Amino acid sequence: MLVDNPYGILRGDTEDPQLIAFPRDGIPEVISTVEALKDAAEKLGHSAMPLAVDVERAQGFRYGSSPYLLQLRREDVGSFLIDTAELRDLKILQSSIEASWILHDASQDLPNLRELGLKVPQLFDTQVASRLVGLTHFGLSAVCEQILGLALLKDHQAANWSVRPLPKDWLRYAVLDVELLTALKDALELRLEALGRLSWAQQEFSHIAEAAPPKPKKDRWRSIPGIGKLTSKRALAIARELWFERDAIAQEIDLAPGRLVRNSGIIHAAQRPPRTRHNLLSIAEFRSPQTRRYADRFLAAVGRALVLPDNQLPPRHRKEDDEHTPSVRHWQRLRAEAHDLLLQVRDCVAQQAQHLEISPEILLEPRIQRALAWDYSQGEPMGPVDEYLAAQGARPWQVAIVAPELHQLLAG
To answer: What pLDDT, in 10s, does the model give residues 225-245?
Structure first.
């Protein structure tokens, strides 16, 4: 398929893509004042073209996932870079950008946009679209290569975007992130139409745009890598107290928790509980100058765990939420028939996905596959499969494809 890209070259899928290293219109000045933001709103309001949107964060450097830079582009107006460390309320832009928004992996950026006071009016997600047309590599640069024959220079993807002033090379990278989104959207839309899947994509876009924020995970401390090495409830209590103390300190100083104390340090301290400052600083992960300042707080956390009564120690295994199925690794022990049914459900969905040349998880979320296998293995009437899938959040296009085959499987 040939696509007329914004650089005036007719290209298609190629093993030798053209590298785009600099934006066509140069690098705009970063908007950091209310006056400049009002001017940007006025300029954006003169266009009705789709709006390309991207957000840069400082995950892995700062606490949380707040946005530090917002990139916007309309093809007939140009690109805009907004310093969202200085401008935290962007509601003034909303009336100027009431058109289709184009994002790549929108579920990552929409929470940040809501945090800035912006609401997506209509969404086109180029990552979701690329998966629905059968691509197997979903990064923005990879999709641009496969669809437009253009490769984006991606050299500051994991940068600390809270740094000020932002280096010019970083700003160049940021502008490039919205440089090709409109052309990419147009090309993917053509492919979706040719495959008869545009309505599938629209259902997915609406689902993403309207999704409620995810509920906070219970017992997040149990997600520490290596926690399976801790074989006693007392050790788990130490890990829990250290995790909470690290999180509290990291939030106070606006630092990613892993930069304060690596996860491996929490596991080491839980395995051999330090009782003195010397013991604590013998653990390499607690020896950095910044972490030393909080040594007394970490020791106090260990002390709290050591004196906890036995009936207040955490259970060896995570308790499952009432609204969710147990972890699959326990199914053979808890309900072997559910495990067997899940294998059949996965195989059924995988076969249909293979026929469509898309990934099984796009055809039906693994979460829904697990829920169906667990619930229908109870031996109690569960009602029609299509109604069950819809109630679990499957979109109409997914239900129409998988429900008939799953009905036959469950009836058999």
So the answer is: 999 999 999 999 999 999 999
Q: Which pLDDT belongs to residue 323?
A: 53
Identify the CATH assignment for 220-312 out of 1.10.287.70, 1.10.150.80, 1.25.40.10, 1.20.1250.20: 1.10.150.80
For residues 183 and 155, the answer to whether their CB atoms sit within 8 Å is: no
Do 220-312 and 328-411 come out as alike in CATH topology? yes
Q: Which residues contact 286 (CB under 8 A, 6 or more apart)?
A: 261, 265, 269, 280, 292, 295, 298
Which residues have CB under 8 Å from 72's CB, separation 6+?
A: 40, 44, 51, 52, 53, 79, 80, 82, 93, 97, 178
* Amino acid, single-letter form, for residue 257: P
The full set of domain ranges for the chain reads 2-210, 220-312, 328-411
Give the long-range contacts of residues 275-282, CB within 8 A, separation 24 or more.
275/299, 275/302, 275/303
Q: Could you tell me which CATH number the domain at 2-210 has?
A: 3.30.420.10
In the CATH hierarchy, which fold is given to the domain comprising 328-411?
Answer: DNA polymerase; domain 1 (1.10.150)
Q: Say what angle helices 396-411 and 336-356 make with each other, to 10 degrees.
A: 130
Q: What's the pTM?
A: 0.91
Please give the Cα distance from 32 to 37 (Å, whole number).
7
pLDDT interval class at 322 (50, 70, 90): very low
- The pLDDT tens digits of the residues spanning 356-380 come to 999 999 999 999 999 999 999 987 7
- Distance (Å, whole) CA 341 – CA 343: 5
Burial of 158: CB neighbours in 10 Å, binned 0-12, 13-18, 19+ = exposed
Residue tagged 């946009």 (tokens): 113
Query: Is 100 in contact with 129 (CB distance < 8 Å)?
Result: no
Q: What is the pLDDT of residues 107-141, one digit of tens each?
A: 999 999 999 999 999 999 999 999 999 999 999 99
